[in-house]
Task: inverse folding
C-alpha cells in the first residue's frame, strides 16, 4: 500500500508550501488544485463552480444535520450537484492514492483515505503570520486593510471547517483528527519539512 | 539564553516519557516532579498538598473569573496558600531555566517562560491508547473498569486544563498555545523524539 500524507491547513498558514516542499523532499507526488480540475472534468461542471463548492459554499445550502440524515434530505438540484462533486472527489482521491506515494492538500483526503492510515498533518499559524503571508504572496489586494483581510481569512477558514464537518462529521478543533499539528508562525517551514520527512521515513 | 522545551500533555498520553527521552537525546536537563518537591521545600508545605493544588484542586476553590480580578479576590488562607505555591513555582521554574538548556513538563512553564521563547510541545492521544498506557504503567488499579479509568483520565485532564487556564488565561484547546502537537496514539514516541530533536537542533 502506498504511503499517503494529508495536509489540513488554516488559510494563509503555508500548508500548501509545506506540503509541496515535503513532497519534493520525499519524492512523492503532490496533489492540490489539480484535484479540482479533475473533479470539474469528471462532473462536467465549471472549475470555478467546483472550487466554490469545495472551498466555500456548501454550508450555505444545507445545515450540518443534513449530513447525518442524507436519506431524508431533499433531492433538489444544488444538493445533488454537491453530492456528485463530493462523489467525484472521493473517486479521484482514491485513484490518486492508489497510484503512488503522495501528499494531498485539503479536500477531506484524511477522511476519504482513512483505511490507508495516512499520516495526517494540520498546519496553523497566528493571525499576524497569516496576514503577512497573504500580503507577501499577493493573495490580498493592496488596498485591503488588515481588518478586512483578517475577516476574509476567518471566513475561508470557517467555510473549510464547515465543509470538513459536513462530509466527515468531525472538526479539526479535535486534535485527534490529525497526527501532527505544526504552528508555522513559530516553526520555519523548511525546518518543519525536514523533521516531518525524517518522521515519515522512520514510521514507514 | 538557554534553550527551553516545554511539554503540555494529556494524562496517559506519554508526555513525560517523550519529554524524558527528548532530554536524554539532546543532553538537556529534565524537570518534572522535582519541581513539586522544590516548591514544597520553599513554601514549607507538604509535597502531597502542593501536588494536589498543582495537579488537581485549585479549581475547586475559586472560579476562573477570580484570575482576571485578583485584586478583588478574598484573601483567605487557602487562596493565599495557592498563590504562594504558584509564586514559588514561578521562581523555581525561572531559576531552572536560567541554569541550562532543559525540558520542563507541565506546570505552566510555557507561560512562565514565555519571554525565553520556549519550544512548546503538546502531547495527546486517543482514549484507547491512554487507557492501555495507564494499565501498562500500573497507574490504574487492576480492579478499575475501563469506564472508571476513563472517568479518572478525563478528570485529571479537566483539572490540568483548569489550572492552566486559571494561571495563564489560555486553554490548550487553542493550538496557538503550542508550536507542535504530537498524537502519540499514531506516532511512536521514539520516532517523535528523533524528529523533535532534529527540529530543535535545526531551529536553535
Result:
Amino acid at each position: 500500500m502506498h504511503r499517503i500524507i494529508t495536509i489540513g491547513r488554516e488559510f494563509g498558514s503555508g500548508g500548501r508550501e509545506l506540503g509541496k516542499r515535503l513532497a519534493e523532499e520525499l519524492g512523492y507526488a503532490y496533489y492540490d488544485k489539480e484535484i479540482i480540475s479533475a473533479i470539474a472534468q469528471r462532473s462536467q461542471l465549471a472549475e470555478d463552480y467546483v472550487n466554490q463548492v469545495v472551498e466555500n459554499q456548501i454550508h450555505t445550502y444545507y445545515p450540518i444535520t443534513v449530513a447525518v440524515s442524507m436519506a431524508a434530505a431533499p433531492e433538489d438540484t444544488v444538493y445533488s450537484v454537491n453530492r456528485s462533486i463530493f462523489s467525484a472527489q472521493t473517486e479521484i482521491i482514491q485513484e490518486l492514492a492508489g497510484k503512488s506515494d503522495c501528499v494531498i492538500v485539503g479536500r477531506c483526503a484524511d477522511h476519504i483515505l482513512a483505511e490507508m492510515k495516512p499520516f495526517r498533518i494540520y498546519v496553523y499559524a497566528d493571525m499576524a503570520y497569516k496576514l503577512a503571508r497573504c500580503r507577501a504572496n499577493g493573495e490580498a489586494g493592496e488596498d485591503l486593510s488588515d481588518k478586512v483581510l483578517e475577516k476574509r481569512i476567518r471566513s475561508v477558514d470557517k467555510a473549510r471547517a464547515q465543509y470538513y464537518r459536513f462530509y466527515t462529521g468531525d472538526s479539526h478543533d479535535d486534535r485527534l483528527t490529525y497526527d501532527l499539528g505544526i504552528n508555522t508562525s513559530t516553526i520555519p517551514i523548511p525546518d518543519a519539512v525536514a523533521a516531518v520527512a525524517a518522521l515519515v521515513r522512520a514510521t514507514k
Residues 4-193 of chain A form a domain with the Rossmann fold fold (CATH 3.40.50.300).
